[in-house]
Here is the input.
Amino acid sequence: MGDKEVESAGNKKICLTSLGCPKNLVDSEVMLGILKKSGFAIVTEEEKADILIVNTCGFIGDAKKESIDAILKLAEYKKSGPSKTLIVAGCLTQRYKEELLSSLPEVDFFIGTGEYQRIAEIIRNGREKKVYADFPAFIHDYTFPRLLSTPAHYAYVKIAEGCRNFCSYCVIPEIRGNFRSRTVESIVREVEGLGESGVKEVNLVAQDTTSYGADKGKNELISLLRRLKDISAVQWIRLLYLYPGSITDELIEEIGGEKKICKYMDMPIQHINTRLLKKMNRHYTRKDVTALINRIRKKISNAVIRTSLIVGFPGETGGEFKELLSFVKDMSFDRLGVFEYSREEGTPACGMRPQVREEVKAERFKKIMEAQKRISLDKNRALIGYKVRVLVDGKGGKGDGTGKGKGDEFICGRHEGQAPEVDGVTYVRKGRALPGDMMDAVITDAKEYDIFGIPSL
Here is the structure.
């Protein structure tokens, strides 16, 4: 790019709003890195920006509503002056580009999930059309700049894009394209750079992390882990979004036997009734899931298992829900999230009958979460008296919410069984440490999701 172009870009301020999952956040960080390298100024105040970008989520109904609300909010800023440019990127654009083009004339550009790497080019030269959303085939590599929006000591690293599982309720293959993996060398180079910049915790993400490398004819996840654990600056490696039907004994042993890999198994089972799992096009049974959980707990004594569930899937009977609820209680998952089934057009499940009423979904959601709250409290209380290693995120305010330690300053951090943003945290009273520091703490109290401790002497 010539000097005049850089100077022109430098006069433009950009504010980006990122919605949805960590995988989407990585795309946002790559866009910010490209824009900064291209000479644009990055700001956090929407009212100060010349160019407003929202990287949207379009996975389920609630996410779509959040994305539309954000677009309409940002569109209000265009009324304050003609220089405002509004860009809608990401999943919502990829899925609904034609509908958005006709219904949102205030948007200047729509950029899909496979075109975000062209963000600076489109801003500078894209006036001949408004929509850039061909079928996604791109995945970035380590040569692309990133501007982290997470705290400086942890980051998400996308190791693959797209999906090949074709669950009957899911639109990800349509939105994100075919499953495609980055090379081991590209990921290692990126993580080395992150480590040099101060990142201590790397969270590996993909739509299906366990399929990494399968599109190239060979599963390479374990090979990748063995390369990443040799990067000295990185202290924790966390695997997110493991497909239950693809978790092998070799992977379990690798996680259990390597100090740097967090003993954290994030494996969305979605349901436990075998009939419903088949309707969901999930390639395992209740028997498979039960055996897998038992193997994990046998081979990794301190394993933390997180799962996600769907309640109200089409045709889910009262008895099948009770089976799921009973399984949750029996298995005592350490972490658990629940989604009410969202009917997504274009998916096989959309046309399935009967559809479960919304009020029934809400009641089932409530019952699962009530059960999990009790389980989570018991799990956290079992940690009282034990020492845990904590990665410090920052200060946690005063008082721990239990009536104890009022007036004391707390450090807020996480032990290896607490993933950023989705799990509870660890508060350490009277601790002295900076964000990114590692410290030992003895747990003294617990609530449903958070635990509390003091520095270990």
Summary: The two ends are 56 Å apart (CA to CA). The first strand starts at residue 13 and ends at 18. The chain has three domains: 3-132, 154-381, 387-455.
